[in-house]
Predict the 3D structure of the following.
Amino acid sequence: MDNTVKNYTVSIFTENQIGLLAQISNVFTRRNLSIWSLSAGASSIEGIHNITIITEATERRIREAVLQIEKRVDVVKAFYYTDEQIVYRELALYKVPTDKLLDGGNLEDLLARNNARIVEMNRTFTVIQKTGHTHETQRLYEELQEVGVLQFVRSGRIALSRSAQEPVQGFLQERQAEKERRRAAREQQEK
């Protein structure tokens, strides 16, 4: 097992229950792991939600944290990944003064170069949206500092594994098959 500290993305599939996020956060706190980013939302499986957490740890420490998280009743399954094992993005919004942005004269070039787009523009401010990795959204923030950034926000990471299907799908299928085997065994014993 590698003792190198690196970034890990923890993907937790859960039922949507009150207080679960606090319980999961407590696992990280007790294990002295900082949560760098957190996002939560629906998954592709009806009734199952996904919580995505970014942290830095050794593989042993993150594996232990994931095993602890899976002990929670409302957690269906949890996985951990390195950056190479997933496809991920963040969303950033930048509010800048419209007059200063237009005075610069290179608005179209700035947007094209950063693969960004305007989501709202009025006389007072312009909101620009950028999707990408942290270093990409940070680079645009630094470029926009020249015209003055009034507000800036970056979302937590959203991620998909590089596997062909949702990883929890295989787990749920195995669990259902096991239930059916047990039921068949009980019926066989009752005969």
Remarks:
- The domain at 88-154 is CATH 3.30.70.1150 (Alpha-Beta Plaits).
- The chain is about 40% helix and 35% strand.
